[in-house]
Amino acid sequence: MRGFFEPVDSLLHIVELYCSRCDANCELLLFESYWAKGGTQLQLNLFEEGKASFDEAYNVLQRAVEKGIITANDDRIAIACGLKGNGFMAVNKFVEAEDWYLRAFHMWDTMDDNVFEDKQLFVGSFSSERPITTNRMLQKSNIAVCLLHQNKLYEAEELVLHSLKERTDLESFQYV
Q1: How many beta carbons lie within 10 A of that of residue 24, not counting itself?
Q2: C-alpha angle with apex 66: 62 to 70, nearest 5 degrees?
Q3: For residues 29 and 33, what is the distance between their CA atoms, to the nearest angstrom?
Q4: Is the pLDDT score of 114 beyond 60?
Q5: Phi and psi of 67, rounded to 5°?
Q6: What is the pLDDT of residue 171?
Q7: What is the pLDDT of residue 66?
Q8: Fewest C-beta atoms under 10 Å: which of 38, 46, 81, 160?
Q9: CA-based max dimension of the chain
Q10: Which phi and psi (to 5°) does residue 69 adopt?
């Protein structure tokens, strides 16, 4: 990586080295590391590399499930599905991206409402009165972009309109 993100890359590399030499189960730490790495790579227009990092984030969580560190319905699996969607969208594979976003939303829909203070934060509907304290947000707008690129204009419009109707802070909207 380059520029502003160069120190981040060094730190993430240290995490990977540590986890590769450590006897402890480091899958959750690696997940966070690959998530951060993929996000910074996308910011730098390194789309293939970002997709690969998001794929690896998902893969390490699958290993965590196999080892019994987390369960298959852990919220981080839903996040990882959304990250895979981000990776596919970055490389213009919109059908695959839509599929992964839908998997993430399906997982959120089957989770206990008490998993987080407000599950809506993670499905792209939030209030300005409640600050987002996490960057674990999967946005319905990403699926709408996928639908637009597939010429599914009606479905994209319905999704966006439905999301707008869910908002509780409609006063914050400004028309440009």
Answers
A1: 8
A2: 75
A3: 6
A4: no
A5: -80, -10
A6: 58
A7: 95
A8: 160
A9: 55
A10: -70, -40
Task: Show me where the domains of the chain are located.
Answer: 3-166
pLDDT at residue 137 above 60?
Answer: no
Residue that has been written with the tokens 């502003």 in this structure: 4
Confidence at residue 49, expressed as pLDDT on a 0 to 100 scale: 95
HEC string for 90-157: HCCCHHHHHHHHHHHHHHHHHCCHHHCCCHHHHHCCCCCCCCCCCCCCCCHHHHHHHHHHCCCHHHHH
Please tell me the CATH code under which domain 3-166 is placed. 1.25.40.10
* Amino acid at position 76, single letter: R
Both tokens of 145, joined, read 């972009």
* CA atoms 91, 97, 98, 101: torsion sign: negative
Is this structure's pTM higher than 0.85?
no
Q: Quote the mean pLDDT of the chain.
A: 78
Distance from C-alpha of 33 to C-alpha of 148, rounded to nearest angstrom: 31
